[in-house]
Amino acid sequence: GNRKHVQKELVAGIPAMQVLRRIDARTDAFPFASLDYATGGRLALPPGSGGARLQSFSAVSIDRRKVVRGTLFVALLGSERDGHDFLPQAFASGATVALVSESRLEAARTAAGRTGAALVAVPDTLKGLQAAAAAHLDRFQRLLRIGITGSSGKTTTKELAAAMIAKEKRVVMNVGNLNSE
Could you please report the per-residue DSSP string of 92-114? Predict the structure, then answer.
């Protein structure tokens, strides 16, 4: 069934920033319990939620403009912008959980307001995302994973490799160029 299908998937050049994206429409969503366990973070459910409807997410975004219902929004601290500043917009767009810095937890609770969104507080959101991505990939032990490295030509090589391999295998890869940690 589904497990066999997923185990035959081929992952080509997926960086940690995109690994958590849903691998296939039939793949189970990522459970919150796994997220706080994988990151070593602390799950903070909204008051009165009981956690009943807050059990999983099926997409991940570091860009509040790409958030849809059921998304984990990761508030990354960049050199010019702080993802925590975009939490209200992410929640308004349908983020059901956010990975936030422990130092910004209270502000994140305020941003979540009454949206019903949950928070997972970690010391470092980038390291938390990377840990969660690794834990998610570990769920698919039989995936063939290909990493493409180098100083130039990675995106083109990724696209060419995926196109060739897709002739015989199912391929999952990141969209575009996401060259970062």
Answer: HTTEEEEEEEGGGHHHHHHHHTT
What is the chain's length?
Answer: 181
The 10s digit of each residue's pLDDT in 107-117 is 999 898 888 88
Q: Tokens 């459970």, residue?
A: 31
Query: Alpha-carbon torsion 90, 35, 57, 17, what sign?
Result: positive
- Report yes or no: 143 and 123 within 8 Å, Cβ to Cβ: no
Question: pLDDT tens digits for 16-33?
Answer: 333 333 333 334 566 666
Q: What are phi and psi of 26, to 5 degrees?
A: -90, 0
Rounded distance, CA 21 to CA 34, Å?
A: 15
User: Is the four-CA dihedral 31, 34, 40, 45 of positive or negative sign?
Assistant: positive
Cβ–Cβ < 8 Å for 123, 77: no
Beta-strand ranges (E) seen in 6-124 are 10-12, 30-31, 42-44, 56-57, 59-61, 71-74, 95-101, 118-122
